[in-house]
């Protein structure tokens, strides 16, 4: 029996392609059916836009227009495109209500959730909150509410976030990404040796998993 295939994923909560990439990976695993290898997924923190203010007063369109130096209509076209791609992956994006903000506190909550064995569920919850519900992933009250939803003690979550208990872990993830040369996310690392950049189609993930599983079986033979 082969050990699970480890998949390390560098990702940001405020990254639309990260949510799409998550769905594509899940679809790639599902497409293998009974032949799908067992996997162990761990998410790592990445801050896509470190200069993002805590509370940007304005729309995502306005923020991206300023940040990228693009006209508003061009940004709107880009967001329409990614919304369409997300819809094909079964996701509902509402950029008109997205609260653009720094994501570091959200990443701290992901580390707390990992300690409770609920990181994957928390990642899904934060992405949905950000892209679909207009949630503010920098505000402790909202983060504590999502922790409570997943059965993590609210008082513990509040203490961890207010004290910055996991702030160093977040920065360690970001430093590791830098050491790997990761400049954009999502970035998937399979068994510490195969890197896949971006929200690739499901079949790409299925092919990588099949290859890695075959190598494991060959080594075990």
What's the gist of this structure?
GO terms for molecular function: oxidoreductase activity. It holds the Pfam family DSBA. The protein is 54% helix and 10% strand.
Report on the structure:
The protein is globular, with a radius of gyration of 18 Å. Helix content is 54%, strand content 10%. The relative contact order is 0.20. The model has no long low-confidence stretch (mean pLDDT 95). Among the domains are: 55-100, no CATH class; 101-171. The chain has 221 residues and is of the alpha+beta class. The chain has a 4-stranded mixed sheet, sandwiched between helices. Helix 1 links the parallel strand 1 and strand 2 (39-45). Helix 2 packs across helix 3 (72-88). It contains 9 helices and 4 strands; from the N terminus they run βαβαααααααββα. The chain has helices spanning 16-31, 60-68, 72-88, 104-115, 119-131, 140-149, 154-163, 167-180, 202-220; strands spanning 5-11, 39-45, 187-190, 194-197. The protein starts with a strand and ends with a helix.
> What coarse outline follows from CA principal-axis ratios?
globular
Largest sheet: 4 strands, mixed
How are strands sequenced across the largest beta sheet? 2-1-3-4
Mean pLDDT: 95
Which residues form runs of ≥5 with pLDDT under 50? none
Residue share in helix: 40-55%
């Amino acid at each position: 029996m082969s050990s699970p295939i480890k998949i390390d994923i560098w990702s940001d909560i405020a990254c639309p392609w990260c949510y799409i990439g998550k769905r594509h990976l899940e679809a790639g695993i599902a497409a293998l059916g009974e032949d799908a290898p067992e996997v162990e997924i761990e998410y790592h923190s990445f801050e896509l836009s470190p200069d993002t203010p805590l509370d940007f007063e304005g729309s995502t369109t306005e923020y991206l227009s300023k940040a990228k130096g693009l006209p508003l209509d061009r940004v709107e076209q880009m967001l329409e495109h990614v919304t369409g791609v997300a819809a094909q992956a079964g996701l509902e994006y509402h950029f008109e209500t997205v609260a653009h903000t720094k994501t570091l506190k959200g990443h701290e909550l992901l580390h707390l959730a990992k300690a409770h064995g609920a990181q994957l569920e928390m990642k899904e919850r934060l992405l949905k909150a950000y892209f679909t519900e207009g949630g503010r992933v920098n505000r402790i009250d909202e983060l504590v509410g999502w922790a409570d939803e997943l059965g993590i003690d609210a008082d513990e979550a509040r203490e961890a976030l207010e004290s910055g208990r996991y702030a160093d872990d977040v920065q360690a993830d970001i430093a590791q990404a830098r050491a790997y040369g990761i400049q954009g996310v999502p970035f998937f690392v399979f068994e510490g040796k195969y890197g896949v950049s971006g929200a690739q189609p499901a079949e790409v993930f299925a092919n990588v998993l099949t290859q890695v599983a075959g190598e494991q079986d060959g080594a075990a033979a």
